[in-house]
Design brief:
heterodimer, A: mainly alpha, 11 helices, 2 strands, 70% helix, B: mainly alpha, ABC transporter involved in vitamin B12 uptake, BtuC, two-stranded antiparallel ribbon, membrane (chain B), Amino acid/amide ABC transporter membrane protein 2, HAAT family (chain B), branched-chain amino acid transmembrane transporter activity (chain B)
Chain lengths: 305, 327
């Protein structure tokens, strides 16, 4: 019970990070982006490449920071991966979504995002292969936090939870304390009115893709640290991230954070009654429940029925 | 010679089954503007439904009722329609892309059930043993292949003619009216939510019929048959042929299935041995490029939608869904 809860919180923090960008993109550009979760894969694999590169260039960086399996090389690689992933999110928008936005409707963008996801996922498969990859070959031993009830946690898991919370806090400060954050919230609230007030919509769209890509890359790295990297990773994240976004209410950053934890915890607790083979379907059950009880989510507005 | 003919019959049977599913998708997307992101689940529901009702009994396995083919087939179609009713009822009132998310979720949930609920679906090993119609009389050789092809083509023609009549009828005009301008349609006393739900259910039942034929053809079904790529293939067929045009949908099905088969052959033959494991990925990328490329450069497809006289001024426009949420 308590183990399932803790595991759920740890997974939930990864969903939350990914859902922040998703909810902003979905709100601002008005389409459900099925290629968004592939950004986690891009981030995870970009970090793998640079982790190996940095560790090879400066061997001192490749030493694990006790008691984690994390190395300084990976920390740097993650920062590079965040930028690369943000840039690829902007690139996809520029190559595909922006052009379709100009001449067709939101559902054509949904359609296109399916195609983009398929391409990205399989290009990753071609480059890195089907098999799972790990950043570190060291065995991460779990620490026994308590014996009754039994509770096992790996140091890496604690680190990723804290790091995810720090990133969310940083983004919260940007949103509430800076002019840029103010503009971002204004655009989310009312795109037309914010343009009248001198906010450039196109640069805000770019910024949202950069932020979303960066946070997703971090989520991808955190997931890969505590589990593993695989090309189907993006596909597996599509539904939980949508669920987190819908639970929180589309457009609400804080809703997305809360939604991520709710989805993570619910999926963790569901393991007590359902075999693990059904875990991928849990977010779908949550989505259905939310649509039945509260279609606009916890913090969503009833503005586009 | 017999080998070649029997291969062509096999190819045409598969393409025909795909074409039926694409016609169902066309009613949803082409005519009504509904995005179904989990076509494979409705196809699969028809396949598993037909198999469970019409298959042979096996130990410790639910189903195998050995019902006559037509009843089993109808049961599979109804099962797909029932699933569409539940999903549509919950999501069609909401933001238009919720249907895309919910149907995508249905496909994931459906896959989980096919892989895990062994008592019902046989799990990873799937279900086998299906008494195919007329097989006792004809045997399962070359002639049966041709007879089955005739059956598939007959269903394809029935679905095609039925849909053509439906979309040419006032009913079809209302569907297009809702797709183009929901508020205007409502002001004329039409009920968009109900019409959309109906179109979604009918389209899903057609996909279920395709699944039923598929399982009858192979007398076997497993989660491998229900891979997510099927959804993408069917979508590519529709967008290449031309959304909104039934003739285009059938053309697209044969074209893309041909391209898929040929690229598979080419990769198997010319790709280096070390790459064989990744031939599927290359094909998936091609399907993705076809979808994105068509949307970018020729969204109306090879055979654009043709709309009756009253809508001539819109005929040049790609089939779009100008939902009320953009207002």
């Amino acid at each position: 019970m308590i183990q399932n809860l803790v595991d759920g919180i740890l997974t939930g923090s990864i969903y939350s990070l990914a859902a922040i960008g998703m909810t902003m993109v979905m709100h601002m550009l008005r389409f459900a982006n099925f290629s968004y979760a592939e950004l986690l894969g891009i981030g995870g694999y970009a970090a793998l490449v640079f982790d190996r590169l940095f560790a090879a260039l400066v061997p001192a960086l490749g030493v694990a920071i006790e008691p984690l399996t994390l190395t300084w090389a990976l920390v740097l690689a993650m920062l590079v991966a965040m930028v690369i992933t943000g840039a690829s999110a902007v690139l996809f928008d520029w190559l595909v979504f922006k052009r379709i936005r100009a001449k067709a409707d939101a559902l054509s963008m949904v359609f296109a995002s399916f195609g983009v996801a398929l391409i990205v996922r399989n290009v990753i498969t071609l480059i890195f292969g089907h098999k799972a990859e790990l950043y570190s070959q060291d065995i991460a031993f779990a620490v026994v936090l308590s014996r009754d009830p039994m509770l096992l946690v790996k140091p890496d898991q604690i680190f990723t939870l804290v790091a995810a919370l720090v990133l969310m806090l940083a983004f919260h400060l940007v949103l509430t304390r800076t002019t840029f954050g103010y503009a971002l919230r204004a655009v989310a609230e009312n795109p037309n009115l914010s343009q009248v007030s001198g906010v450039r919509l196109s640069s805000m769209v770019t910024a949202v893709w950069m932020i979303g890509g960066g946070l997703s890359a971090a989520a991808g790295v955190f997931y890969a640290m505590t589990n593993h990297l695989s090309p189907v990773m993006g596909h597996n994240f599509v539904l939980p991230v949508f669920a987190a976004t819908i639970v929180g209410g589309i457009g609400s950053v804080y809703g997305a954070v809360l939604g991520g934890f709710i989805v993570g915890i619910a999926s963790g607790l569901a393991l007590m009654v359902l075999p693990s083979g059904y875990t991928p379907a849990m977010p779908f059950v949550i989505i259905l429940a939310v649509l039945l009880v509260r279609p606009h989510g916890l913090f969503g507005e009833d503005r586009d029925a | 010679m017999i080998g070649l003919i029997s291969y062509i019959a096999f190819f045409a049977t598969m393409a025909g089954i795909m074409a039926i599913a694409v016609l169902g998708l066309n009613l949803q997307w082409g005519n009504t503007g509904l995005f179904n992101g989990g076509v494979v689940a409705f196809f699969g529901m028809g396949a598993y439904g037909t198999m469970i009702l019409g298959g042979r009994p096996e130990a410790e396995q639910f189903g195998g009722f050995e019902l006559p083919f037509l009843i089993a087939f109808a049961g599979g179609i109804l099962a797909a329609g029932l699933m569409a009713w539940v999903v549509g009822k919950l999501t069609l009132r909401l933001r238009h892309d919720y249907l895309a998310i919910a149907t995508f979720g249905v496909a994931i949930a459906f896959e989980s059930v096919t892989r895990n609920a062994e008592w019902l679906t046989g799990g990873a090993k799937g279900l086998r043993g299906f008494p195919r119609p007329f097989e006792a009389a004809i045997g399962d050789g070359f002639t049966y292949g041709l007879v089955f092809l005739a059956l598939v083509l007959a269903v394809l023609i029935v679905v095609y003619v039925g849909l053509e009549r439906l979309v040419r009828a006032p009913y079809g005009r209302v569907l297009r009216a809702i797709r183009e301008d929901e508020v205007a349609a409502r002001s004329l006393g039409k009920d968009p939510a109900r019409m959309r739900l109906q179109a979604f259910i009918i389209g899903s039942m057609i996909m279920g019929a395709a699944g039923g034929l598929y399982v009858t053809f192979y007398a076997f079904v497993s989660p491998q048959d229900m891979a997510p790529i099927l959804t993408f293939q069917l979508w590519a067929m529709l967008i290449v042929g031309g959304a909104g045009n039934n003739r285009g949908a059938v053309l697209g099905a044969f074209l893309i299935w041909g391209a898929w088969t040929l690229s598979g052959f080419a990769l198997a033959r010319y790709a280096p041995a070390s790459m064989q494991l990744y031939a599927g990925s290359v094909q998936y990328i091609l399907i993705g490029l076809v979808i994105v490329g068509m949307l970018l450069w020729r969204p109306q497809g090879l055979v654009p939608e043709r709309i009756g006289k009253t809508f001539n001024d819109r005929a040049a426009k790609a089939p779009t869904n100008t939902g009320a949420h953009q207002a």
